[in-house]
């Protein structure tokens, strides 16, 4: 089955009788047991067996099944946010006294969680340069238990050599967690590249419409019980409407991603030719430093990339950003609408540095026509020049 077909098939209930195309939204806390005998079996019921609302509903079971199939994983889990997927995944594999290696280009709130909560619980956290590859070997200690990667990196888009990192990690008995939100499993297959726990902010491309928060975790068979118990210890349950919306988003994921990819590449090429632009940060462009790794491991690029401007005044930057017609200024990404935000990697790096004098922009290419987006940017650059 091809990927485009797979996203239309996964997580659907089959019946030989008449039935609706889509899985129903099941709301509920209490599940009734018809007999005393069956009630006694409650503690022994497995995953995806009706037991109690906190254990899931047919709607969450369907999306979890879909995630497992999409990722090619032994198990899939749905959680309330992308950040919850990260924090739960990390907590599932770490204990006091362990050493954790995290890519220096990691998503900001993941860094904050590691430096606050994980450190408070006695975990030793160390950030590694994202381009280190197999060189990560020198950072391993006897108590290194996990590597948390994100490729490409948040804001700066470095591609990490995941197979090389996984090889080293596994040799040391450590597990590899990957935040794969940018590529989704359609464009990067974590489990074919040695990842043990794959995480996505379903808030982004999986749902695709900027109307919900959700996260997914997919694991190998060896780690699925650990993650499952961690989720339940933390009381992580997702609302059925959100599970339904993630399933619905999946149906159009392949066509949306294709368009996001195409538009982002058009915008990146256009921006790279502009005199206001210092350089474009896009892993699928041959001039990007870790482009070769992207080419080796990925089958596509999504719609998020960076654009480094030449230095301008704050007033000029405001003139550029303030009156955009189509580009919105706001957090998150992966929706149908294009977004454009200023960002500053300088404040969130410790083993690497960001010394660029110009302003870095993060662009999420939406589903508008690229000509309209280019028109918007053209007018923005004209306002910027006028404000000089
Ligand atoms: C947005 C994001 C998250 C967190 O997702 P939320 O649903 O907003 O909590 C995690 N990782 C990456 C790379 C993200 O971009």
Label this structure with key terms.
binds pyridoxal-5'-phosphate, 13 helices, 7-stranded mixed beta sheet, 4-stranded antiparallel beta sheet, alpha/beta, 388 residues
Number of helical segments with 4 or more residues:
13
Ligands present? pyridoxal-5'-phosphate
What is the radius of gyration computed over CA atoms, rounded to a whole number of angstroms?
Answer: 22 Å
Give the CA-CA distance, first to last residue: 55 Å
Q: Based on helices, strands and strand pairing, what is the structural class?
A: alpha/beta
Mean pLDDT: 97
Number of β-strand runs: 11
Major beta sheet, specifics? 7 strands, mixed
Order of helices and strands: HHHEHEHEEHEHEEHHHEHEHEEH
Shape: globular
Structural features, described:
The protein is an alpha/beta fold. It has 13 helices and eleven strands. The strands form two sheets. The chain has a seven-stranded mixed sheet with strand order 1-7-6-5-4-2-3, sandwiched between helices. It has a four-stranded antiparallel sheet with strand order 8-9-11-10, covered by helices on one side. Helix 4 packs parallel to helix 5, helix 4 crosses helix 8 and helix 12 runs antiparallel to helix 13. The protein is globular and about 80 Å long. It starts with a helix and ends with a helix. The structure holds pyridoxal-5'-phosphate. Pyridoxal-5'-phosphate binds next to helix 4. Pyridoxal-5'-phosphate (PLP) binds next to helix 4.
């Amino acid at each position: 089955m091809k990927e485009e077909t797979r996203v239309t098939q996964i997580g659907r209930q089959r019946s030989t009788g008449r039935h609706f195309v889509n899985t129903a939204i099941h709301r509920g806390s209490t599940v009734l047991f018809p007999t005393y005998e069956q009630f006694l079996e409650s503690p022994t019921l497995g995953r995806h067996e009706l037991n109690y609302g906190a254990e899931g509903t047919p709607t969450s079971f369907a999306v979890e099944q879909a995630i497992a199939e999409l990722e090619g994983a032994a198990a899939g889990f749905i959680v309330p946010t992308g950040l919850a997927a990260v924090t739960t995944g990390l907590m599932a594999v770490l204990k006091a006294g362990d050493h954790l290696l995290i890519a220096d280009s990691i998503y900001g709130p993941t860094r904050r969680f590691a430096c606050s909560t994980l450190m408070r619980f006695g975990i030793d956290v160390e950030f590694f340069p994202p381009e280190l590859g197999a060189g990560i070997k020198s950072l391993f200690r006897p108590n290194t238990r996990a590597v948390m990667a994100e490729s490409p990196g948040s804001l700066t888009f470095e591609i990490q050599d995941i197979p090389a990192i996984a090889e080293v990690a596994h040799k040391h008995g450590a597990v590899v967690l990957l935040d794969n939100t940018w590529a989704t499993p359609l464009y990067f297959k974590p489990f074919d590249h040695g990842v043990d726990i794959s995480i996505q902010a379903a808030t982004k491309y999986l749902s695709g419409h900027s109307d919900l928060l959700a996260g997914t975790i997919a694991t190998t068979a060896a780690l699925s019980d650990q993650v499952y118990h961690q989720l339940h210890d933390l009381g992580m349950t997702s609302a059925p409407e959100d599970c339904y919306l993630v399933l619905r988003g999946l149906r159009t994921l392949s066509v949306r991603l294709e368009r996001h990819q195409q538009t982002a590449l058009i915008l990146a090429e256009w921006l790279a030719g502009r005199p206001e632009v210092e350089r474009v940060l896009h892993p699928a462009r041959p001039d990007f430093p870790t482009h070769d790794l992207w080419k080796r491991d990925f089958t596509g690029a999504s719609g998020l990339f960076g654009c480094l401007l030449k230095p301008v005044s704050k007033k000029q930057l405001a003139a550029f950003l303030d009156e955009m017609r189509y580009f919105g200024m706001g957090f998150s990404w992966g929706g149908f609408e294009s977004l454009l935000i200023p960002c500053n990697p300088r404040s969130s790096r410790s083993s690497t540095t960001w010394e660029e004098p110009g302003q870095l922009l993060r662009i999420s290419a939406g589903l508008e026509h690229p000509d309209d987006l280019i028109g918007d940017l053209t007018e923005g650059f004209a306002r910027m020049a006028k404000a000089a």
